[in-house]
Amino acid sequence: MTNKKIFITITILIVVIVIAIPIGVIYVLNNGNPYTKYIANKYVPEYLEEQGYTDEKIQESHYVEPKHVINKDFYHGHYMVIFKDEPHTTYYYGITKKGKQVYQFCEKEKLSHGLTEIIEGETKYSEQDCKHSLDNRD
To answer: Which of 4, 42, 69, 89 is 20 to 30 A from 118, alpha carbon to alpha carbon?
Structure first.
């Protein structure tokens, strides 16, 4: 290769890196990690179906990216579910990094009088084997 070809190749590589890395970081900050989103969208709906929660029982469900640090044993993204017969309570599910097991988080959000509060008490769809999303954060 000539010096001119090497210079052009290095210049193109630097330009791509300077543009691609910031765009990638901005994408992940705005939309969350695409791998985590894929994992949540794959495993949690299957889990909900196994638990007997059909589309007729679920009002809304989708992937969400929490704005705070969560339990290190779980992937950062959550899957939120609102049931039709309990529309003011939002349940969150997470996927473990080891084994990709789905667990409901003990913390739920309850909307009352226009304010959202975090509750951990027993609700209609609470699971016995829930995990705390705020444990193991360091």
So the answer is: 42
In sequence order, what are the beta bridge partners of 114? none
The secondary structure element, H or E, covering residue 19 is: helix 3-31
CA dist 59 to 62, 70, 87, Å? 11, 25, 7
| Confidence (pTM) | 0.79
Does residue 1 surpass a pLDDT of 70?
no
Instruction: Return the amino acid letter for 47.
Output: Y
Least Cα distance to 60 among 96, 102, 88, 94 occurs for 88
The pair of three-digit structure tokens given for residue 42, joined into one six-digit string: 């794959």
pLDDT tens per residue across span 18-57? 888 888 888 877 777 888 899 999 999 999 999 999 889 9
CA 102 centroid distance within chain: 12
